[in-house]
Automatic annotation (TrEMBL):
Residues 10-24 have a biased composition (Low complexity). It comes from Streptomyces flavidovirens. Residues 1-24 are annotated as: Disordered. Residues 168-314 form the GFO/IDH/MocA-like oxidoreductase domain. Keywords: Oxidoreductase. Residues 30-153 form the Gfo/Idh/MocA-like oxidoreductase N-terminal domain. This is Gfo/Idh/MocA family protein. InterPro entries: Gfo/Idh/MocA-like_OxRdtase_N, Gfo/Idh/MocA_oxidrdct_glycsds, GFO_IDH_MocA-like_dom, NAD(P)-bd_dom_sf. The lineage of its organism: Bacteria, Bacillati, Actinomycetota, Actinomycetes, Kitasatosporales. It comes from the Bacteria. Pfam families: GFO_IDH_MocA, GFO_IDH_MocA_C3.
Length: 424
């Protein structure tokens, strides 16, 4: 790897520059993570494992984790392997041994933490959806652009791009194996809100989550559709619904997906959607359909996507994430059909570092791949994917979906980037 100029961050922290000449041991990059529950555990797994599996240009060090309760965050640090614990994210950002700030909190704090971390000279990984509003996502993207000029990178945690079968599907589509794209069909279904007495956790409150199934699950499938198609959505027509409009107030702090702490007699209003259903048009004219719900009884984390082009089709089911179905429509009709590709060969994305063919990967590996890719982006000084700009584009789609739903499904353009203000 070619050496590059030392960045301001590295100069400030005294770290050996990432991308040092071959033979030098990889330099350490300290990670500081905010939030330690569901995604915090998954990201910890990624940071702990990436350097033990992949040959990395930098060695991630789990420097410090941050929560709001001192005792609980100390316990989380011990459980997940973090050297230190903080109770204020500002103190985490200020630490000299933290070079990457990893944001695993609900959406209401993403913008404030990310902008502060970038302005303080840190690289940032931020969970999805990037923010709770387009305005916040714009501010974050502007901060990322300013930081980019100083050699910092910022990435969004759309981890499903890093399922090897999805990365490989993108490669096949980019090679033209589907030809001109006609359809993208995506559903992301869960069932943890079917119970009307599931407590009113942060995911059901607009001020904390921004939106409901839309921002939680819809953000993933919008990103995946745009990533695989290689083009943005330009307009949508949408319906959303909140089937259960009040829920029991949680008795105590409760993790987003667990029912723990519920059951109180007092109920509060649900201020987000339970389900979002929308169609869309991609820039090339291809049509797309999306369904995101937490009300699909029996469906636990069922993400399915199919793409149809003039030369073939691809289909994927997250419950069988080592497999990709591919139909080559240029083959003779009599012998053609969907074939199952087992995406575990060393030639497949990320697989060169894992197990022999057929020894399957799972959900957690996507977070290892995410850590790997961010460290490579830092080392090579390249824009990571998905960037904050990609996260902003998804946010604009979510906003267009909400606007369309408010207008009874009227077709609503996804606002393009605003032109730069004209000089007077
Ligand atoms: N990539 C994925 O597949 C995926 C899956 C689930 C959640 N997410 C996203 O990850 C983020 C977190 O979701 P989660 O499921 O981990 O939630 P969670 O409720 O399980 O955990 C949230 C954590 O943030 C902490 N926290 C909240 N506010 C804080 C603050 N101001 N300072 C410090 N800590 C704070 C909480 O104490 C908790 O540790 C959300 O943006 C969510 O949309 C992504």
């Amino acid at each position: 790897m070619a050496p590059r100029e030392e960045t301001e961050t590295e100069a400030a922290t005294g770290e050996t520059p990432v991308g040092a000449p071959a033979g030098a041991s990889p330099p350490a990059l300290g990670v500081g993570m905010v939030g330690y529950a569901f995604m915090g555990a998954a990201h910890s797994q990624g940071w702990r494992t990436a350097g033990r599996v992949f040959d990395l240009p930098a060695r991630p060090v789990l420097a410090a984790v941050c929560g709001r309760d001192g005792k609980a965050v100390r316990a989380a640090a011990d459980q997940h392997g973090w050297a230190a614990a903080e109770t204020d994210w500002r103190d985490l950002i200020a630490r000299d041994d933290v070079h990457i700030v990893d944001i695993c909190t609900p959406g209401d704090s993403h913008a404030e933490i990310a902008v502060a971390a970038l302005d303080a000279g840190k690289h940032v990984l931020c969970e999805k959806p990037l923010a709770n509003s387009v305005a916040e996502a714009e501010a974050m993207t502007a901060a990322a652009e300013r930081a980019r000029a100083r050699g910092q990178v910022a990435m969004v945690g759309f981890n499903y791009r890093r399922v090897p079968a999805m990365t490989y599907a993108r490669r096949l589509i980019a090679e033209g194996r589907l030809g001109k794209l006609r359809h993208v069909r995506v559903t992301y279904l869960q069932d943890w809100l079917v119970d009307p007495d599931f407590p009113l956790t942060w995911r059901l409150q607009r001020e904390h989550a921004g939106s409901g199934a839309l921002g939680d699950l819809g953000a993933h499938i919008v990103d995946l559709a745009q990533y695989l198609a290689g083009e943005p959505l330009v307009g949508v027509s949408a319906m959303t619904e909140t089937f259960v409009r009040s829920r029991p107030l949680p008795a105590g702090a409760s993790a987003g997906l667990s029912a723990g702490g519920g059951g109180a007699a007092e109920r509060g209003p649900v201020t987000v959607d339970d389900s979002a259903l929308f169609t869309g048009r991609l820039a090339s004219g291809a049509l797309a359909s999306f369904e995101a719900t937490r009300m699909a009884a029996g469906r636990k984390n069922a993400l399915r996507i199919e793409l149809n082009g003039e030369r073939g089709s691809l289909a994927f089911d997250l419950e069988r994430l080592n497999e990709l179905s591919f139909h080559d429509h240029t083959e003779p009709a009599a012998s053609s059909g969907f074939r199952r590709i087992l995406v575990t060969e060393p030639e497949h994305p990320y697989l060169e570092a894992w197990w022999p063919p057929g020894h399957a990967l799972g959900y957690e590996h996507t977070f290892v791949h995410q850590a790997r890719d961010l460290l490579h982006a830092i080392a090579t000084g390249t824009e990571p994917e998905p960037s904050f700009a990609d996260g902003l584009q998804v946010q604009r789609v979510l906003a267009a979906v909400e606007e369309s739903a408010e207008k009874n499904a009227v077709y609503t353009p996804v606002l393009p980037e605003l032109p730069a203000p004209q000089a007077l």
